[in-house]
Every structure is written in C-alpha cells, then in structure tokens.
C-alpha cells in the first residue's frame, strides 16, 4: 500500500506559545506533498520534518486569519532561494489574491518560478484539485470569516497481481497491466486463466478530512461521513463553551460529536487555545463521546488506514 499520511507541523491557535506552532500540516499522498494551512514559520517546520520543498506543489489555505496564512510568503521565498522552477499552486479564499500579488511584487520580484492562485468558494463543496490518484474537495465551514476545510480522497487503485500466478503461468511482464485492468490470460496452449484467479483485491481508497476553524455544525457530519481520518479544530474545552460560541470555534466535545455522527475511523484534535497547559482536558472530553480521539503534536506523522 502506498503512503497516505499527515505530517503535523503546527497545532496551536492564534496566540503563539513556546509549546505549539500555529496551524499547518502536510498531507503526503503517493509521493506528492500538499500543504494545508501555512502559519508562521512554515518553512522552518518543513525543514524540521525532513520534507522536500521541491515536492510541495499545492498549498491549501482554509481562511485568512494570520495563524493560518502568515507563513505563506516565507515559504514562497524560501522555495525560490532553493532554485525552484515548477509552478506552485495556492488555493485560498479570493481576498488573498490581491494581497498575495502585492507582497510578491514587493518581496519576490525575481522569484524564478510561477505562483498560480486559485480562488476558493468557501460556501460550496466542490473539487478544487484532481490528478490520477487523488481528489481534493472543499468543505464549507462556519467561522467569523469565509472558511473552508479540505477533503482528500484517494482514487480507487487497480488490483494486485499475484506473484505466484506469474511464476506458475509464466506470464510476461507486458501482460501484467492488462490483467490488472481486468483481462484474462491465455496460455500458449490456449488455456484461459480468469482474471480473478490472477489478482488479489485492490486496497480500499482512503480519505482524510481537514476541518479548520469552525463553530459546531451538525450537518458537517454528512460531508465527512465515513472518512478514515478526521481533523477537527477543538480550541476549547467545555469550560469555555461561551468563548467557542462567541468566536465561532468548537469544543473538543463538539468535534467528537461530529466524528461520532459521521462514523469516521479516527479523530484528530488540534488548534488548541493557549490557555490550556495540559490538553488532556480536551482529549478526555472528546473521548467521552468518541473514544478514537487523539491529540495532535508537532512533528507527528499519522498514517491513514482504511
């Protein structure tokens, strides 16, 4: 099974602390790296994680609060200093476009590569990126400013060829892809070996949903229904539910309610308020509702399993 995993580079909220970096993640899928949110110091966190700048081809910004996008210009500049020539694609609410142009014109006139901006409609769910192996959809969220999460889905893969059958029937390499695509194999003596005998089932497609800053939205469970891994902001514990309602954030318990209603495989908690020196209060409240809840931490790598 090819790699599909999430690198946690930052899981704090707006007020910086010495314990957490602001929001930023890298989704690694079949050799490609997708950055999701880009808080301050993103380029440093990418280096600490040992990730390749050259493989980051797409950056997805959920909304225009600084703890989710202040690191973008630093990342763009650092990548340029490394001699990049390939286009970098940035997806974000449309208001970022003019600001990005102005900053690049001032700071990055001789960048050496193109930064292509893709405005995101945060009010609807649709595919914003697609290649042969993965799609990325928007997830409409409800925050104080336009905000969207992102849903990564693997595309179905082909079945696995059985090595023992290759040896038994002396199947030439040239026929392997045809068999994976559904064809039978005809031996030199005319015997037809059915496709089903030559393969084992394909790995089930995996999925990851990133739900950035949002108040509790009951209907969100339908959009992320059945995903293997859900990240849902959990800024507050129950002791600050009033703050959550005022600033359009969620509590850990509310994040768990979404996970339970959606029937997800695992829940990741993040975007922790700086007021909590021990996030176990958040974890315990989430696990009362959804036992497969986990805290995120910097430089953590989570494999997505179906």
Notes on the structure:
- It is a single chain.
- The protein is of the alpha/beta class.
- 26% of the residues lie in helices and 28% in strands.
- It has helices at residues 42-48, 66-69, 72-81, 96-107, 163-169, 176-180, 195-198, 220-223, 241-246, 252-262, 280-289; strands at residues 4-10, 24-29, 32-38, 56-60, 88-93, 115-120, 127-130, 134-140, 148-154, 160-161, 185-186, 192-193, 199-200, 207-211, 229-233, 266-270, 293-295, 300-303.
- Strands 6-5-4-3-2-1-18 form a 7-stranded mixed beta sheet. Strands 7-8-9-14-15-16-17 form a 7-stranded mixed beta sheet, with helices on one face. It has a two-stranded antiparallel sheet with strand order 10-13.
- Helix 10 (252-262) packs parallel to helix 11.
- The longest helix has 12 residues, at 96-107.
- The chain is globular, with a radius of gyration of 22 Å.
- The chain starts with a strand and ends with a strand.
Quickly describe the structure:
This protein has eleven helices and 18 strands. It has about 300 residues and is an alpha/beta fold.
Summary tags:
single chain, 306 residues, alpha/beta, seven-stranded mixed sheet, 28% strand
Oligomer: single chain
* Low-confidence runs: none
Strand order of the largest sheet: 6-5-4-3-2-1-18
Strand percent estimate: 25-35%
Fold blueprint:
Blueprint: E1 4-10, E2 24-29, E3 32-38, H1 42-48, E4 56-60, H2 66-69, H3 72-81, E5 88-93, H4 96-107, E6 115-120, E7 127-130, E8 134-140, E9 148-154, E10 160-161, H5 163-169, H6 176-180, E11 185-186, E12 192-193, H7 195-198, E13 199-200, E14 207-211, H8 220-223, E15 229-233, H9 241-246, H10 252-262, E16 266-270, H11 280-289, E17 293-295, E18 300-303
Parallel strand pairs: 3-4, 4-5, 5-6, 14-15, 15-16, 16-17
Antiparallel strand pairs: 1-2, 1-18, 2-3, 7-8, 8-9, 9-14, 10-13, 11-12
């Amino acid at each position: 099974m090819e790699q599909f995993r999430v690198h946690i580079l930052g899981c704090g909220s707006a007020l910086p602390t010495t314990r957490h970096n602001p929001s930023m993640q890298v989704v690694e899928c079949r050799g490609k790296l997708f950055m999701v949110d880009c808080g301050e110091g993103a380029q440093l966190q990418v280096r600490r994680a040992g990730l390749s700048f050259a493989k980051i081809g797409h950056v997805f910004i959920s909304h225009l609060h600084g703890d989710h996008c202040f690191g973008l210009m630093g990342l763009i500049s650092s990548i340029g200093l490394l001699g990049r020539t390939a286009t970098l694609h940035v997806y974000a609410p449309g208001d970022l476009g003019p600001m990005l142009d102005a900053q690049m014109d001032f700071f990055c006139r001789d960048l050496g590569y193109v930064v292509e901006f893709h405005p995101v409609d945060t009010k609807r769910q649709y595919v914003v990126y697609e290649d042969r192996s993965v799609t990325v959809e928007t997830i409409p969220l409800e925050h104080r400013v336009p905000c969207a999460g992102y849903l990564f889905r693997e595309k179905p893969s082909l079945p696995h060829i059985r090595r023992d059958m290759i040896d038994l029937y002396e199947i030439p390499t040239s026929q392997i892809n045809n068999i994976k695509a559904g064809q039978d194999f005809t031996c030199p003596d005319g015997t037809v070996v059915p496709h089903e005998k030559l393969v084992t089932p394909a790995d089930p497609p995996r999925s990851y949903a990133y739900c950035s800053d949002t108040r509790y939205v009951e209907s969100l469970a339908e959009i992320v229904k059945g995903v293997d891994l859900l990240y849902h902001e959990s800024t507050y514990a129950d002791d600050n539910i009033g703050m959550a309602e005022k600033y359009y954030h969620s509590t850990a318990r509310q994040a768990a309610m979404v996970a339970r209603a959606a029937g997800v495989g695992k829940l990741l908690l993040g975007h922790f308020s700086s007021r909590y020196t021990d996030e176990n209060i958040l974890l315990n409240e989430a696990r009362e509702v959804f036992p497969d809840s986990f805290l995120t931490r910097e430089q953590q790598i989570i494999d997505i399993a179906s």
